[in-house]
Specification:
about 25% strand, 5-stranded mixed sheet, alpha/beta
Length: about 100
């Protein structure tokens, strides 16, 4: 499963999560972001409840992107215990994303 994160659910779904959360900051017009989508879908299906995998549209939810200083997309951030644990910019492999999550 791939979650859609918004201003309304970001605190509960990401910052207060009991499991690691991987968030892709993306936009509909971003070509590389489109390449990440099937990777996230596969990763979400594989990991099940071990982690949350989701996306946040920087055009629609710009407040969160601004707060986190997102300047390039796709930016992928792993949150653990409500804090930024690790981040990367650009298309990443499923194995790289699993390593970022510590799984």
């Amino acid at each position: 499963m791939v979650y859609t994160f918004t201003t309304e659910n970001f605190e509960n779904e990401v910052l207060k999560s009991q499991v690691p959360v991987l968030v892709e900051f993306w936009a509909t017009w971003c070509g590389p972001c489109q390449r990440v989508a099937p990777i996230l879908k596969d990763l979400g299906a594989e990991l099940g409840t071990k982690a949350k995998i989701g996306k946040l549209d920087v055009d629609e939810e710009y407040q969160i992107a601004d707060e986190l200083g997102i300047m390039s997309i796709p930016t992928i951030i792993v949150f653990k215990d409500g804090k930024v644990h690790q981040s990367m910019i650009g298309v990443q492999s499923k194995d790289t994303l699993k390593k970022m999550l510590g799984l």
